[in-house]
Amino acid sequence: MAKERLDKIIASMGTWSRREVKELARRGQVTVNGAAVRSAEEKFDPETADIFVNGEALCYRRNTWIMLNKPAGYLSATEDGRGETVLDLLPRELRRLFPVGRLDKDTEGLLLLTDEGGLAHALLSPKRHVDKVYYARTAGRLTEEDCRAFAQGMSLLDGLQCLPARLEILSAGEESEAHVTLREGKFHQVKRMLAERGKPVVYLERIQMGNLPLDRGLSRGAFRFLTELEIASLRALV
Ligand code: URA
User: Fold this and answer.
1) Is the dihedral of CA 57, 58, 61, 66 positive or negative?
2) Which pTM was predicted?
3) Which of 63, 98, 203, 213 is most buried as measured by Cβ atoms within 10 A of its Cβ?
4) Residue 206's Cα: distance from chain center in Å?
5) Which residue of 186, 189, 202 sits with most ligand 1 atoms within 8 Å of its CB, as the best mutation to test the pocket?
6) 3-state secondary structure 9-56
7) Nearest Cα residue to atom 7 of ligand 1
């Protein structure tokens, strides 16, 4: 792999900013292949260099994957003049990542971000059948008939053609709760499918993507890196 600046390599892991790396290096707290490197501008091959920061080995990952617990009010975009994006919730070093698919501004929950375009794209392809699971609260009483309509694959009045999906009712009343499982992610799809059934969504949260559940240890707005095992399990899906 091509050589890169030491501050860039270390900052890309998300723990330290480039400024912090410069300072740590200046104080002799960064070693590469056993020797202190005091200038963070020096270049190394991140895949072969043995880098230690504060005595701890840096486990370099070529690609970065994070799980964000998205709060309402943020756009799943990398840039938008109209408001805050999910990137505003991340440290500067991670703002090069892009969201894997989109959640509406008012939708909360699991959003993956990465710099690995190929796998991100594959996970979103309807051909791969990667399930996305949502928790939805609706106005109106959900019924078994709604479940059957979802299972058959709905043809919406607005022209949207939907693959068969799963609607699992958790509670039914004036307001109902359900889990919705889709293998595709068309624009406002859950809201449009439920609106078509006359049960508009009043709250929506994504709770799972493939075999990866939303980490309930993450408060809204918080993120964490995926483990190697989690990344491998995403790869195994496609
Ligand atoms: N379906 C929706 O309607 N909105 C989302 O944010 C995600 C799926």
Assistant:
1) positive
2) 0.83
3) 98
4) 10
5) 189
6) HHHCCCCCCHHHHHHHHHCCCEEECCEECCCCCCEECCCCCCEEECCE
7) 103
